[in-house]
Design brief:
By secondary structure, the chain is α/β, with parallel strands linked by helices. About 35% of the residues lie in helices and about 15% in strands. Helix 6 crosses helix 7 and helix 11 packs across helix 12. The longest helix is centred in the C-terminal third of the chain and has 22 residues.
């Protein structure tokens, strides 16, 4: 099969769909890989590295002409125009918060498989996990910067110093992203509270952090009280494939101290703060209701090399399966992989996407 790897064009997106090592695995299996010139530079891979791995360096048109297109971020509208029926697109999509992209993919006729909705027998989202880990860890890093006075923050050091209380970090959602955020905040010696709706997850968090972080049930009263008292709020809420629930209202934000900070990891699914709006690495923050907001939709792109390696660790086996067997046979043998199908021949196949965008849902006919 011919596999195309285009260069990412989202603002300050430096990741790449395949590393040279991944390309080598595919070419060793007699697949052809076309990598757009300079696609890997942002992650530290030169064209020569891909040539040594067996790839051919080509143009953007040649990369998008392949039978299987492997990307990182959702295709921008100009990229959607390059897609066609009969092709397979394998990348992050986050369609529930993006009607224009959804409509463009439907119009193209492409078969679009989303990393973030591929399931597993264990019940997790294996292709979303590494980027959730990266974003969770980054959230404390960027949140600490947002709290600095020069960034518009209140001038709070999260770890405090002897004789001065640490900053209060509130994390909404105790899943992969939230737990990783808590690990970093605890490591900085902040005062950390994690809220989640799952009693089982709260038990795991309580045992894991062993008193170093407090855990609370995520009901409306607890959320309101904790947000009002926070120096930094991290939104790490996920409903697979669906738009993120708005857990923090504008009224709650108004109750926060001037110069407090909020980081919305859920922004690529629409955001979990009512005051959130998407930002880029070019202009990552804004102040709303006196609170600094960081709402970059591709946070892991800032640490592209780490993120690309982490992503390829989990995506390569699926790319190999698609290349070896085609998507229909792959789905027939793995119902969890089939959960990744979002768009095919102009129809929506993921229930949460259809519900979020008020579109008709087509029945999945290829799952095991």
């Amino acid at each position: 099969m011919r596999i195309g790897v285009p260069k990412e064009i989202k603002v300050h997106e430096y990741r790449v769909g395949l590393t040279p090592a991944s390309v080598a695995a595919l070419t060793a299996a007699n697949h052809e890989v076309v990598v757009e010139s300079a696609a890997g530079l942002g992650s530290g891979f030169a064209d020569a590295d891909y040539v040594r791995a067996g790839a051919r360096i080509g143009t953007v048109a040649e990369a998008f002409a392949a039978e299987l297109v492997v990307k990182v971020k959702e295709p921008q509208l100009e990229e959607c125009a390059r897609l066609r029926a009969g092709q397979v697109l394998f990348t992050y999509l986050h369609l529930a918060a993006d009607l224009p992209q959804t409509q463009a993919l439907m119009a193209s006729g492409v078969t679009a498989i989303a990393y973030e909705t591929v399931g597993s027998a264990a019940g997790g989202l294996p292709l979303l996990t590494p980027m959730s880990e990266v974003a969770g860890r980054m959230s404390i890093q960027v949140g600490a910067y947002a709290l600095q006075k020069a960034s518009g923050g209140r001038g709070t050091l999260l770890g405090g110093v002897p004789g001065v209380a640490p900053g209060k970090v509130v994390i909404l959602g105790g899943g992969i992203a939230g737990a990783n955020a808590a690990m970093m905040a605890v490591g900085l010696q902040a005062d950390v509270t994690v809220l989640d709706k799952s009693v089982a997850r709260l038990g795991w968090l309580s045992e894991y952090f062993a008193g170093r972080a407090k855990v609370l049930m995520a009901n409306s009263q607890n959320v309101a009280e904790q947000v009002a008292a926070a120096d930094l709020v991290v939104g790490a809420v996920l409903i697979p494939g669906a738009a993120a629930p708005r857990l923090v209202t504008r009224e709650m934000v108004r109750e926060m101290a001037n110069g407090a900070a909020m980081v919305d990891i859920s922004i690529d699914q629409g955001g979990c703060f009512e005051t959130s709006r998407p930002t880029t690495h070019d202009d990552p923050t804004y102040i709303e209701e006196g609170v600094v907001h960081y709402c970059v939709t591709n946070m892991p792109g800032a640490v592209a090399r780490t993120s690309t390696f982490a992503l390829n660790n989990v995506t390569l086996p699926y790319v190999v399966t698609l290349a070896d067997h085609g998507w229909q046979d792959a789905f027939k043998h793995d119902a969890h992989f089939a959960q990744g199908l979002n768009v095919h021949q102009g129809q929506i196949f993921h229930p949460q996407v259809a519900q979020a965008l008020d579109l008709a849902l087509a029945p999945l006919r290829w799952a095991a």
